[in-house]
Amino acid sequence: MTKLMEWLFGISxxxxxxxxVAFDPLDLSVPHTYREVAWPMPLYLLVSFGCYxxxxxxxxxATFNDCQEAARELQGQIKAAKEDLRSKGLKMCN
Amino acid sequence: xSARKTSRSKPxxxxxxxxxxxxxxxxxxxxxxxxxxxxxxxxxGYKYEIIVIDDGSPDGTLKxxxxxxxxxxxxxxxxxxxxxxxxxxxxxxxGMKHASGNFIFIMDADLSHxxxxxxxxxxxxxxxxxxxxxxxxxxxxxxxxxxxxxxxxISRGANFLTQVLLRPGASDLTGSFRLYxxxxxxxxxxxxxxxxxxxxMEMIVRARQLNYTVGEVPITFVDRVYGExxxxxNEIVSFVKGLLMLFVTT
Lengths: 94, 250
Known about the structure:
The complex is a heterodimer.
Chain A: H1 3-23, H2 32-38, H3 41-62, H4 68-87
Helix pairs in contact in A: 1-2
Chain B: E1 16-23, H1 29-44, E2 47-54, H2 61-72, E3 77-79, H3 88-96, E4 103-106, H4 118-128, E5 132-136, E6 143-145, H5 149-166, E7 178-181, H6 182-191, H7 196-209, E8 214-218, E9 220-222, H8 233-249
Parallel strand pairs in B: 1-2, 1-4, 2-3, 5-8, 6-9
Antiparallel strand pairs in B: 4-7, 5-7
């Protein structure tokens, strides 16, 4: 099953459950409180997911490691490399 | 008592690592990355070779590669040039044809990937006999130098979207610092059809599909090129297209 199919399947299941509980199309006498709670669920879940996404990406951007040390180390090694290579006979332009 | 030279280096268990370096206009960086690779591999004691796949660079990268070959030896530096810029997938295929290693490293030649992580990749691979080990900028001590807020935001946002849609089981899909078992790379590269960022993503997604095991190693990515080539709208659009393609077909 492709990811698209998995999503469509998952969404169908959730949608079916929602319709069943919120609108009671089969007249199963779903208690009124269940219907009230279920009805705004899709919107609620969407908004929650949106907030979760923003918070997660925001957190990850804020904690994205800034590798100053790595950059410094690289600069040092570049110098050493150039000297060593020059001494071994490499003709470099800078 | 005869003097014996004790080798403090490694298990000579027959493993050899071929490093594939596709290059385009890397006249200045190539000697540096080769120097670093030689340094860290020699320290590790593992057998290795560096395969430079130059796509007809107009700046004379191949000439520099030839000089490096004279310095380090033709058994360590192999040249597999091509006439023009033909893309990464075919570069890997071309490079692998003459690779004598049973493991393949792929990495960028512009010094954004640092060879010091090589021993960590190797250790990780041996730890779980992973089919592929991916360098990640998003976990552990991994990170990036040289990116502004906008770039970080795009990177994390794109990665989040990818995780949600593809649930790939790897934290960094667009990274290109990886260690593969040679057979695995050969198998995957044939199956992957995308270009650019998406190619690297597709490699991991297909690896998971084929039930290959994927390990991760945090790496630091030092971007010295970012100032010159900002991530533009075009690249973002083609990334999203590629992501959707993978979403629909895998």
